[in-house]
Amino acid sequence: SQLANQIAAGEVVERPASVVKELLENSIDAKATKIVVTIVDGGTSSIRVSDNGLGMDREDAVLAFSRHATSKIRYSRDLFAIRSLGFRGEALPSIASVAEVSLTTSATSGLAIRVQMAGGDLVNISECSRGQGTDVHVDRLFYNTPARLKYLKMVTTEVSHVADVVGRMALAHPAISFTLLHNKKELFRTPGDGKLLHVMHALYGKQVARQLTPIEAEDLDFRIYGLIAKPEVTRASRSYITWILNGRFVRSLPLTQTLLRAYDTLLPIGRYPIAALHLEMDPKLVDVNVHPSKLEIRLSKEKECCRLVQDVIRQAFAKETL
Ligand code: ADP
Ligand code: MG
Predict the structure, then answer these.
(1) In this predicted complex, what is the ipTM?
(2) Which site in 15, 220, 227, 294 is 20 to 30 Å from 140, CA atoms measured?
(3) CA 103 to chain centre
(4) Model confidence over 87-140: pLDDT tens digits?
(5) Domain range holding 41?
(6) Residues 53 and 159 occupy one common structural domain
(7) Under a CB-based contact definition with an 8 Å cutoff, are residues 31 and 53 in contact?
């Protein structure tokens, strides 16, 4: 029902950045290699995510807006099983219940189908033409839920949240090209050539990219690899530290604290390093035990994992000074 969708939307859709995150996940699930995100006024007026993924046929395009219409096979042992269960097939109907949504998709290239929704109601279905892939337009977010609308922050704040989401997705998926445009200005574009270094270059600039050190290590349970900035290159916030667990962006205070401790005295007070670190492990070692959309995780062998992180970073800097 409409109400159920709006209640679900309360969980999934907090602000433009949460819409972008859900749409990006769908594009990635559809095996897109190129994704363009275009927002107007921080996403409050309009959000558009365009991909070159598998697309949908007519039937699936219409079904995509009914609850629990997910086409995805879920594995219960999946790291994000809890998250998937919670939001299974709910993102599109939830978003459509609090905005004007138009979905244009083609599974074959050429003939495309367009489904338009407003406030959860089907407005129109039409045919048009498009290459293989999917476009989702989300206009006037929260137009019918004034209480939510009121909580939207200044445009610059919403833009930085969107940039954060797209940036971290790009760090998690170096083989996919991500472009972010705001009010017709390109904020960044990653090449999608599989190289983490090139993603960081696109996001943080040439100066930072030049100062990155690759790290790599593994033990019985964990593998870690990625790029960390030399201690001379710091930022005033922790938001340049990204953890990617089995291909998904996550938050973990213990891991971040371990990273900071490994830099130790090398960091000036109030300054933080830049790092993008991928961790791989058996999904059984991960517990997604807090609010699913926050992506906070708990590791069952946390101490061991933190030790590996600390060792590999200390070693990287020890080599530097030789
Ligand atoms: P979920 O992702 O949990 O399956 P969603 O509401 O996010 O649920 O999406 C519903 C369905 O719509 C998906 O299962 C998928 O089949 C289809 N879909 C959504 N976005 C895309 C896309 N960009 N490309 C192809 N299919 C999509
Ligand atoms: Mg989804």
Answers:
(1) 0.99
(2) 294
(3) 20
(4) 567 899 999 999 999 999 999 878 999 999 999 999 999 999 999 999 999 999
(5) 2-189
(6) yes
(7) yes
